[in-house]
Design a protein that fits this description.
CATH architecture of the largest domain: Orthogonal Bundle
Largest sheet: 5 strands, antiparallel
Low-confidence stretches: none
CATH class of the largest domain: Mainly Alpha
Number of strands: 10
Helix content: 55-70%
Number of helices: 8
Strand order of the largest sheet: 4-3-2-1-5
CATH topology of the largest domain: Helix Hairpins
Radius of gyration: 42 Å
Distance between the termini: 140 Å
Order of helices and strands: HHHHEEEEHEEEHEEEHH
Number of domains: 3
């Protein structure tokens, strides 16, 4: 070591020792004054968290039991319990952090900003989510019912918070966003216990209208699935271009609608054949007028 190094060591050694001693005194002061306070706050925050979590579980259990006794939809029960649990646990965590001395103003601002950004990015999904809640609460249709929704006709299989799963008549599964369902017209074919069958049956102008009407009434009266109240209607509705059209409107139970409708069409066609009634095709009469000049035998000569 040269002379300059020895001189520098002798010059700076007292300053370094003084700095180390200062740090030691600060650490000792922190351990004696603040560490105990921080430890007590941490223990209190942990106790608050454990108590809050226990209370949240008890409250969730009570709410779930009450909703199940009220016969609320199972999906709505799960959703409500999950949301309530998340809200209560968020309050418990915020309270625990505040008890430890954490400043929550900036944290709350960050959470609010992040929530706003996420909301903008997921506004389509949030719309489907809100529509799912509406479907569960207002129940415009249920699982197993046949409906027309979102331009699709089929049987409802599952109703989720974001989508509804349907099955068409040809056994195709279709998943429809709930927002598309609530924004359009919902046609529920199974909502009411009875439905009316609307048939238009045409016969020829040469047929006996009274005989045709008696036959149509007899077909309806012989089917035990057709309800007596409301009373079925059979009446002449239109004098068409090619046929005299009857309206046949019997009432049936909703579950018998398709079967009875098909059976009536088959019976009416077979009965028309047996009774000699006609179901005319669309037709037009063509009238040909003879040329008077050609009929007289005269010859037209072009003067030019």
């Amino acid at each position: 070591m040269n002379e300059w190094s020895v001189l520098a060591a002798e010059t700076h050694a007292p300053g370094v020792l003084e700095t180390v001693n200062t740090w030691g005194r600060d650490a000792q002061e922190f351990l004696m004054t603040r560490a105990a306070d921080f430890g007590l706050r941490a223990v209190a925050a942990l106790i608050l968290y454990m108590i809050g979590r226990t209370i949240a579980r008890v409250v969730i259990r009570i709410v779930r039991t009450a909703m199940e006794r009220a016969k609320v939809e199972a999906m709505l029960v799960r959703f409500a319990c999950n949301v309530l649990h998340a809200v209560m646990m968020a309050m418990v965590v915020i309270g625990s952090l505040q008890l430890m001395g954490v400043e929550m103003t900036s944290v709350t601002a960050i959470i609010a900003t992040a929530g706003f950004a996420i909301g903008l990015a997921l506004q389509g999904s949030l719309s489907n989510f809100a529509s799912g809640i509406m479907l569960v609460i207002f129940k415009p249709f249920r699982v197993g019912q046949r409906v027309d929704v979102g331009g699709v006709s089929g049987t409802v299989e599952e109703i989720h918070l974001f989508t509804t799963i349907m099955r068409t008549g040809d056994n195709t599964q279709i998943i429809i966003p709930n927002g598309q369902i609530t924004s359009g017209v919902i046609c529920n074919y199974n909502a009411l216990p009875t439905r009316r069958i609307d048939l238009v049956i045409g016969c020829g102008y040469a047929d006996d209208l009274r005989a045709v009407k008696r036959y149509l009434l007899r077909v309806i009266q012989e089917d035990s699935r057709i309800l007596k109240d409301p009373e079925p209607l059979v009446a002449v509705d239109e004098l068409g271009n090619s046929s005299v059209n009857f309206v046949v409107r019997p009432w049936v139970k909703t579950e018998d609608f398709q079967t009875v409708r098909r059976d009536l069409l088959e019976k009416i066609k077979l009965g028309f054949d047996a009774e000699g009634f006609t179901i005319p095709y669309p037709s037009q009469d063509l009238y040909v007028h003879p040329d008077p000049v050609a009929a007289s035998g005269l010859r037209v000569v072009d003067a030019a």
